[in-house]
Write a structure and sequence with these properties.
The chain is mainly alpha-helical. A two-stranded antiparallel ribbon has the order 1-2.
Length: 254
Amino acid sequence: MKHIPNLFTLLNLFFGCIAVICILQNGITIIYSAEGTQYADFPERIWLAPLFIGLAAVADFLDGFLARLLKQNSPLGRELDSLADVVSFGLAPGLIIYQFLRMSFMGQEDGADVPMIWVFPALILPCAAAYRLAVFNLDTTQSRSFKGVPVPAVGLMIASFPLIYWTRNSNWILNLLLNKWVLYAIVILLSFAMISHIPMLSMKFGGKKDPQLIPRLILILSALVAIFILQWLAVPLIFLFYIVISLLFKKRIA
């Protein structure tokens, strides 16, 4: 019984590894329009990465749920969970940014000759995720709330980028996702958000008297409305809602 939660943690890692494979299998192709305009695209296999990151998130939720249900919390499970999260919600999303940066440069003239150093900032994200998870494992005060944005929340937000890119036809959205300066800013802001000490809402419900119950319900209702109206574009918006609501109800969370 004690290893059942750990099996789901390993399933989280397994799905994260598949997501990494899907992301790295894509060779970017330079395409020319009838007008001679150059742009870049890569095969549909990267579409599968958000699916496997999402499955990793489900497994990540279930391992904690089962550990509490079976009363099998252990130092081993805590360490294993962080190791899995680094891959599924740190490395895999960082590589999604890496591929979007590559696509951004490949859409430019002589983009294939751009030094690799210009896409390496994407790797700051998994480094920040690893640091944040290591701090979390040593901090015993984050059982009911978080200090800094949780790594899975960042990973799921970035996992929505490929889905938004291939399902939205709005040029301004596509231009944002292919703007290297926007991508650099996203990496810096998300990395800072993870390693910060800002009190953040936890989604672990603790009963009717839980002081975080109201902000959780507000977040869930806002998320449902956003998903109904915006589909995949709602994911980054929900992420912003999460941060804003956490800041507004900081006294209830801290």
